[in-house]
Each structure stands twice: as structure tokens, then as C-alpha cells.
Amino acid sequence: MADDAKQAYGNYHFVLEIPDVDQALLFFQVTPPSVSVDVKEFVSWDAKGNPVKTVGSGRQITYGDLQLSRGIDKDLSLWKWLDDIRQKGVGPDTKKDLKLTALDAEGNPLYIWNIKGAGVHTYSHSGANAQTNEVLVENVSIKFEDLTLEAA
User: What is this structure's pTM?
Assistant: First the structure.
């Protein structure tokens, strides 16, 4: 149970590494990638005529978008990536392989998602109010083709 002490769930954050971006981007809120496998069920019958449910017969894999939020700074790399996609479309020139790392409170890696063939799907900013202390937030949603997950 000593390993549990290293996991400060209330204070973890995320680092996104993007090729051609000098410095990794920090995020305070992430919806990590999700994977769904649609496995078909079909019914067959045994020798006595009783139905037997069977799982199998192919698979359809879908991935949920990676969603990230971070406080605004002077880094425009996510906007530039989206702008590149707006001008050229999603293709070999604009797809990127990303590395998303979840960090604990001390900055130690917990999990690493290696994301392949990614492209920005949506880009937005939160509403801003100059009368409060709220931070302007950059939000991005990223579609991708494949991923792997590893414990750090």
C-alpha cells in the first residue's frame, strides 16, 4: 500500500507533448481518451434446440475524443495546429502523434497515453469576466486514430 501514498488524486495535472512544439503544455482538466469495443452477440442453438448466446463475430472499435483545458498563456501552438487543419484539412501533414502524461502532486508520472494520428477537432475559450479573478481557459478536443496506455 506504500504506492497509494504517491497518488495525490486531488492535485494531479497533465502534460501534453506535441511534435514541433518547443515546450510541453500543462493542463488542469482532461477527459482522457476512451475506447469502446462493439462486440456482436448472436444466438445459436444446442442439440436440444435451446438458445445459446455467443459473443464474438468481429469487432468495431471507436475512440472518444481527448478533451483538455488549460489556463491561457502566450503559447498559441494549439491554435496554430487547428489553423493548419482549417487550411489543409486533416491529413498526413497535419496529423500528430501526442504523448499525454498524468502527473501526481509531486510531478511524478502516473500514466502515459501515446496517441497516434491526432488532429484538433474543436477549439474554444471559456467565457471571460474582467470583474472576477477567473482565468481565461483554452479548451481543445482532439480526435485520433489509435492509442496505447502505459503505467509510468
Answer: 0.79
Terminal-to-terminal C-alpha distance of the chain: 17
Pick the CATH number of 2-36+64-151 from 2.60.40.10, 2.30.110.20, 2.40.37.20, 2.50.20.10: 2.30.110.20
Tens-place pLDDT, residues 4-62: 443 334 566 899 999 988 888 989 899 999 999 887 777 778 888 888 877 666 678 89
Name residue 36's amino acid: S
- Do residues 136 and 124 lie in contact, with contact meaning Cβ atoms separated by under 8 Å? no
3-state SS class at 61: strand
- CA angle 19/152/99 to nearest 5° reads 15
